[in-house]
Amino acid sequence: MATGRQIQNDYSPLFQPGSIGDLELKNRIIMAPMGNALADDKGNVTDALLDYYRARAKGGAGLIVTQCVSINEPDMMPYSLSLHDDSYIAGMKKLVDTIHDYDAKVSIQLMHPGLLLLLIPGLPKNMTIKVPSLIPLLGDDKPYEVMTAAHIGRIIDDFALTAARALDTASPRSLWLWLEKITFAESATCSMIYMNM
Questions:
Q1: Residues 92-126: pLDDT tens digits?
Q2: Which domains does the chain have, with CATH numbers?
């Protein structure tokens, strides 16, 4: 079995400083976003969630990408973080500061779930799965909602407003912002905000 020293020698580039654009990282270890269901049922940061990310930052990650952060209340994933209104800023700032205590950078993953809701057994009451159109493959056993142009415009606005709130968690530190929009499964979208704070 390899020792820690042998592993570090075999993968030494991982432990060297790196960068993404102007975002300087202490190493090249990036924690991918993973759902952990540690937010409360309203999407607030909890002590358990802070402990979870603190352990990863303390463990040496150079960049931590948070679990998905909901952009609006009607489409909030159960027990995931939310930043859909200003009441969430203080909790998110606490999370960012906790990660920064160990010299790690933070990326907040903003998300509208779209068809990912198909993977959740037992959708919360009154939640619908937003789709571009109804196709036979979807069946009729789930609460689908066909998105209109106006609805799509509101979701775009929700992304922008939530991104602005995410930026509020950075003040008064320096900030580097990169938005990446990925579309998959026809209607699910994700955006990431990388913050060098």
A1: 999 999 999 999 999 888 999 888 888 877 788 88
A2: 17-195 (3.20.20.70)
